[in-house]
Amino acid sequence: MLDALRNAYRLPDLRNKLLITGLILVVYQFAAHVPVVGVDRQALAALLEGQSGGLVGVLNLLSGGAVRNFSVIANGVYPYITASIIFQLLVPIIPQLEAIQREPGGQERIQRYTYYLAIPMAILQAVGQINIFGALGGQPIIPGFGSDLLLTVSVLTTMTAGTMFAIWLGELITEQGIGNGISIIIFSGIVAQAPGNLGNLLFNSTQPIYNLILFIIITVVSVVGIIVIQEGVRRIPVQYGKRVRGNKQYGGASAHIPMRVNPVGMIPLIFAQSIITFPAIIANIFPPGPLGDSITQTFGSQQGLAYWGTFFLLVVGFTFFYADIMVTNQALAENLQRNGGFIPGIRPGKRTEEYILRVTRRITLVGALFLGIVAVMPGIIDFLNRLLFPTEAVSGQAGNAALVVSGSGLIIVVGVVIDTMRQLEAQLVMRNYEGFLR
C-alpha cells in the first residue's frame, strides 16, 4: 500500500488528484467550525456531555465535528443519502422514472432530481435535529427558533446551503480527486474525531486499561473481519461453447463469475445510519406527547434493545436489497447467453438468472449478518460493561470502547480505504500499460 501511494505521488496527474482531495477535505473541516447563528454554546456543551454516546455523538462523529460546533454543515451529506434511498426505491416502482433512467442521459436526470429532493430533506433534517437536541438537552440550543421568523429562516437557509455545499465538495472529489466523494467526506469526519474520542476514552473513563485493551481487540478483530468479508469471493464456473468460423475455432474456454460475499460494501451502513435517525426527527416535528417522547428517547439516545434491534435489521435488510439490485442491474444471465456462455448444469436464460440470484442471496447472508453485528457492536459492549461494572457509570464515549470509532464508522473507514486504494492501483496499472505500449 505504501509503495502504491509512493508511486502515485510520483505521477503528476495522480499527485494533483491527491492534493485536490486533501485540499477539499481541509475546506470541509474549516466549514465544520463555522457555527449557525443564534446557537447557545452552553446548552450545546451540556447536550454533548450528556449525550456523547447517543445520536448526538454519532452525528458529530460522522459529520467531522460539525455537530459539536453546530456548524452550517451539521446535517452533513445525509439529506442527499436519504434522497438517494428514496429514488432507488421509487425507480423500480414508478414506470415513468424507470423509463427516464433507461433513456440516454437518464441517469443524469435522476441524479439531478436527487439533488432537488435533497433540499427539502435538508430542511426537514435541520428542523428535526434542532428539536431533538432541545428535547434531549432539556433546553433549546437555538433560543427563539420557531417563534422568531427571521432567525428561523436564517438558520434553515444556512444549514440547507451548508448541506448542499458539503454535497458539492463530495461531487468535486469524485470528479477532480480520487475515490467516491460522498464516502470520503464521511470518512474524513470519522477520522478527524477518532483521536479526540480515544483520548476521552483513556483519560475520562473509570477503567482506562480495560477500555484500551478492549478498543485494540475490537479494532483488530473488526478490521481483519471486514477485510476478509469485503474480499471474500464465491466463483461460479462458466463454460463458453465452441464456435467454428471458416478454418478457425472460437470459444470453448472456461471462466468464472466472481460473486462477492459483501457486494455492496459500506452502502447499507450509511443508508441504515441515515434511516435510523428519522423516527426521532419525525417525532419532534409533531406536538409533544408520550409516544413522541418514547421514540425520541429510544432513537435519540441510541440505547435499548428496540434501537439496536432496528439498526441490525436495517443493515441486514439494506444489504440484501442492494445486493439484489446490483445483480439485477448487471444482467449476468442475459450477457452470458448473448456471448455463448453457460453455467454447467444450469439452463441458460431464466434458470441461470434464478441460480445466480439464489447464490448471491446465500453468500450475502454471511456478509449481511457480519455487517449487522459490527454495526451494533457499541450496544453489545454497553451490555457487557453493565454486566462487568454494574455500579459504575460507563455509558457514552468515555465508557464504551466501541464508540471511539463506531462499528459502522469502522466499516466505512476500511471500505473507503480499500476502494480508494483500488482506484489508485487501477490508475497506476493503466499508466504502466500506456508506458509499455509506447
Walk me through the topology.
Elements: H1 2-10, H2 12-31, H3 41-50, H4 55-62, H5 78-90, H6 95-102, H7 106-137, H8 149-176, H9 181-203, H10 208-231, E1 233-240, E2 242-245, E3 248-251, E4 254-260, H11 267-276, H12 278-283, H13 290-301, H14 305-330, H15 332-338, E5 341-342, H16 350-375, H17 377-388, H18 407-437
Antiparallel strand pairs: 1-4, 1-5, 2-3
Helix pairs in contact: 1-18, 2-8, 3-7, 5-7, 5-11, 6-7, 7-8, 8-9, 9-18, 10-16, 10-18, 11-14, 14-16, 16-18
User: In total, how many domains does the architecture comprise?
Assistant: 1
Q: Enumerate the spans where pLDDT stays under 50 for 5 or more consecutive residues.
A: 433-438
CATH topology: Preprotein translocase SecY subunit
CATH-derived architecture? Orthogonal Bundle
Mean pLDDT: 78
Order of adjacent strands in the largest pleated sheet: 4-1-5
Tell how many strands the DSSP assignment holds.
5
**Element string (H = helix, E = strand):** HHHHHHHHHHEEEEHHHHHEHHH
Percent helix, as a range, is 55-70%
By CATH's scheme, which homologous superfamily applies? Answer: SecY subunit domain
The total of helices stands at 18
Query: Strand content of the residues, in percent?
Result: 5-15%
Q: Shape from CA axes?
A: globular
At the first level of CATH, the class is Mainly Alpha
- Biggest sheet descriptor: 3 strands, antiparallel
Class from helix and strand fractions: mainly alpha
**Estimated radius of gyration:** 24 Å
End-to-end C-alpha gap: 27 Å
